[in-house]
Amino acid sequence: MGRYIIRRVLLGAATLLLVTFVLHLLTTFAIQLNGSPALAFFGDRIPTDAQLAAVEERYGLDDPCYDQTGNPCLGPYVERLGAYAQGDFGTNLRGREVTDIVATAAPNTLKLFAIVTVTWFVLGMGLGSAAARWRGRSADHGIRMTSVLIDAFPIFVLLLVYRYVFAVPLSDWARSTFGDDSMVALWFRPSFDADHPWATVLVPGILLGLAGSAAFIRLVRASQLESYAGEHVRTARSRGLAEGHVVLHHVVRNSSVPVVTAVGLTFTEALAGAVITEGMMNIYGMGGVLWEAVRGNDVALVVGIVTILAIVTVVVMLVVDIAYAALDPRIRYA
Q: pTM for the complete prediction?
């Protein structure tokens, strides 16, 4: 187990280095082709050469390699890795530390993820188990068709339809029925309210969890069908055990190993979807900050946020790999 963990940690570190290097190359070539992003610091004003040089020096954009198209700028990349190792992820155009921004925005993203996880787990386990239990019947066909329809509607489509078709009439109905400050009225608010974060991220979280549940439903169904065909299930039934006991202890429990893998996959999908969800619903979270940074051409903030999200993703996938190996020892020797 120890050797397996070491291999996975080294692979995770290599993956992280590759991601940061590709991100560095993309931002470097963008600067070389489109000009210095330091101009965004001045807005509509035209800076003098001295002012532009001062801002470029402040944000580490004064290296001559940025003026040479095709130069990978390895020196600034190594310097950036050294800063990352010290916990310094840079500052945005207003001079605020990226880590401070993340510390403020991350709690709202975690609230969103908590709702996403509950929605995803309830729908996935509930519908997937029902489809496997009644395989070939109308319930199975209906659930599988529903999962296909969910896949056909990306999260941004669900959010657009909700916000511009349903949110306003639902919000008006809730305020007139239950009052402006009622919990139901907060649920259907078309934008985020920092004073009531849990209430106003509920519907976006459910929609994001719904969008990510389709693949999980099919995974749970396939995994449980395999368990239903296993010898241990036939043996349990032949001993006269109740069907509910067989399903809970011999089907659901023994088919839960692939679910651990799905946790990591769903997390990465939710992380990507959070950028769209938080941006469209004006939620001040990691995705919302990244959305605004891209719109404002704040390259330093974009790079810092994406790097932190990449680190979180690699760590989550590493934990999933280790948990999977702990549940199924055969994985360690694959």
A: 0.74
Q: Which of 304, 242, 331 is closest to 101 using CA atoms?
A: 304
Q: How far apart are CA 134 and CA 228, in angstroms?
A: 11
Longest CA–CA span in the chain (Å) reads 86
**Do 208 and 112 form a contact (C-beta atoms < 8 A)?**
yes
Per-residue confidence (pLDDT) for residue 258, from 0 to 100: 67
Instruction: Region of 91 please: left (phi>0), alpha (psi -120 to 50) or beta.
Output: beta
* Pair 19, 311: CB distance under 8 Å: no
Give 169-198 as a DSSP string: HHHHHHHHHH-TTSHHHHHT-SS--TTSHH
Q: Is 86 in a helix, a strand, or coil?
A: coil
Task: List, for the chain, all residue ranges whose pLDDT scores fall below the cut of 50.
Answer: none
Q: How many CB atoms lie within 10 A of CB 196?
A: 16
**Closest listed residue to residue 89, CA positions, set 239, 268, 304:** 304
What residues contact residue 304 under an 8 Å CB cut-off, 6+ apart? 89, 90, 98
Dist CA 2 CA 11 (whole Å): 14
Res 91: pLDDT: 81
CA angle 233, 322, 127 (to 5 degrees): 45
The whole-number pLDDT of residue 261 equals 67
Rounded Cα distance, 256 and 263, in Å: 11
Give the C-alpha separation, 130 to 151, whole Å: 19
Q: What's the pLDDT score for residue 329? A: 61
Token digits for 93? 């155009």
84, amino acid identity: Y
d(CA 164, CA 11): 44
pLDDT for 18: 92
**pLDDT score for 21:** 92
CA distances from 40 to 76, 294, 297 (A): 20, 12, 7
Nearest to 69 by CA among 39, 25, 37: 25
Reported as type and span, the H/E element at residue 11 is: helix 2-34
Decide if 302 contacts 98 (C-beta within 8 A): no
